[in-house]
Amino acid sequence: MSGPPDAHDPDPAHDPDPAPDPDPDPAPDPDPDPAPDIDTASGTFHRRRYAGVFALLFLFGTETFLVSPLLPTIADDIDVSEAAAASSVTAYVLVYAICAPFLGLLSDRFGRRTLVAGAALFLVSNALAALSTGLAPLVVSRAVAGLAAAAAGPAIWAHIAETAPERVRGRALGLGMALFSCGQVIGVPLGAVLAGWAGWRSAFLAMAVGTALALPPLLRRLPPSVPPSAGRPTETGAVRAVLAGWSDPTLRKALTVNTVFHAANLGAYTFLGALLVERFDLSVPELGLIGILVGAGSVAGSLLGGRLGDRARAAGGDQVPLLPLWGVLLAAGITLAAWGPGPVLALAGVAVWFLAGGGFVIDQQTLAGTVRPELRATSSAWLTSTMYAGTGIGAWALGSFAGVITGTLVIGTGLALVAALGALTVGTGRRKAVRQDQPA
Hints:
Layout: E1 38-39, E2 44-45, H1 51-78, H2 82-85, H3 87-110, H4 114-131, H5 135-163, H6 169-198, H7 200-221, H8 238-242, H9 244-247, H10 249-269, H11 272-280, H12 284-314, H13 323-339, H14 343-368, H15 376-399, H16 404-437
Antiparallel strand pairs: 1-2
Helix pairs in contact: 1-5, 1-6, 1-7, 3-5, 3-15, 4-5, 4-7, 5-15, 6-7, 6-12, 6-14, 10-13, 10-14, 10-15, 10-16, 12-14, 13-14, 13-16, 15-16
């Protein structure tokens, strides 16, 4: 796979006002202030200055899916069942989902240095996993990793949203999400190969080393305090402040749509392997290749979603111009995967399915970074928490059907269309709010 394209528009024919990068290969900057990341004259996005956060996103993407291919080996080595070893994944997800909104608020109130603290804790958690000799220390290490990702993840998205020039904000976020997805496409297979050669602990050790390499550029580029444009949440109580995003009509609708969309998207994905085995009797190695297709679709959707969103907004569209489209494409992709005649069309459906997922996430992250600037990290954290909630709801609902094909069509396709309709109300509400904020 070729590397991700430049985050600023590489095609001058499609850019109404291209400008040369005034500093294509900047010398080391003795002042770590993040202001140089924004070139207000040209709107250029300097990718090198985001190397640390992009590297961390790649590592987070790898970490999220790393245990799956290693599960049998881990279970055999520490002498537990695979179900017991899988509790390490549950620990990671639960800690992230519960803690992310509170740690996002911490970042909004006291600055993006929580990102560095999260990265340092992520390094420690992977070192602990590499040293684990039993189930209990492994589960604890994965819980710590979830806490680390909850501290750093929302802060990363907020940092990109508030420092990338507005005209390329979607592309900057899209590049970040594409690199997160590359963790699944590239990082997970590399981790599995390394584990096969040197044992499963070596994969976690490699994650710790990678995080250590990402820390210096993070320390150089992050601001010491809350950026001037971000402001501070005005709510006094922690719980009240964490829930503040839900009091905003646009964010409340967006988070509800996010829950429904991922109940269809990732809830149905839980049963994708079972669906394809039932339809086409695929082998385990063939199902492994489906994972690469899923990741590649997510990468393409992230990059395309960011680019198309920026173009639509530059032409006068709202902050989420394509949100309903992603819901419709998700419904089409799931339907093809579950009902399309022949494996070729079914696999094309899988690609469309995850392209839609990648584009949807970027539209949502752009919205979260725009509606309430003082709550960027908190809003981003709620996107992840509602994503996990939707995944659990969708998987439970689909699992209640006797047939996986019927369940996928009813839950996957049905909820995707519901999400598309709900997305229409998000865009309408956002446009109304913008008009009300404009001076008479």
